[in-house]
Write the structure tokens for this entry.
Amino acid sequence: MTRRLAPGPLVVASHNRGKTWEIADLLGPYGFDVKSAADLGLPEPEETGETFEENAILKGRTAADLSGLPALADDSGLAIDALGGEPGIYSARWAGEPRDFSKAMEKVEERLRAANATRPEDRRARFVSALALAMPGGEVETFVGVVEGTIVWPPRGSQGFGYDPIFLPDGQERTFGEMSVADKHGWETGEGLSHRARAFKLFASKCLGEPA
């Protein structure tokens, strides 16, 4: 499936305010009437997939089928080499319930120190974002974006959300937590800077027309 979407109602299949805001901002120039799954009172499905793409598809299909509208879902997380790719698809779960990413970042640092990963070269990591466009009735297409970087400590910056304050993308002097949303999207580079912006660029090139 390569489906072209005309501007109209679109569900962002997320209850995460920060993620919903970022995706809505990316969609803004294209003229969509964006609603979140939380806005529509849709349930959060259990994330039983074994990959980011599987979980994005699960969330997208649930939102599209329940709302009767096209849905764009994201499953993303932080994968750290020294931790064998953890927290990976469990990135949000490391923050517990209710979500506390300060504790999640402390957990990351504790695990890295336990692994004797104290030098920058030992603290390599990547953010991964899988976007799934789901249509009512079951059609789904996925787009994956990745950004490489290094884990820093202590956390830097109060912008962004999740693990942003401890992730320093390659070639940058600021963590994602120190960047505005516009800087984090990084369109001036031609490819997007964040993992979500890179996945969105792939989605936009296939499924969207020119910005309004």
Helices lie at 17-27, 52-67, 101-114, 181-185, 195-207. The first strand starts at residue 9 and ends at 12. The CA atoms of residues 90 and 201 lie 25 Å apart.
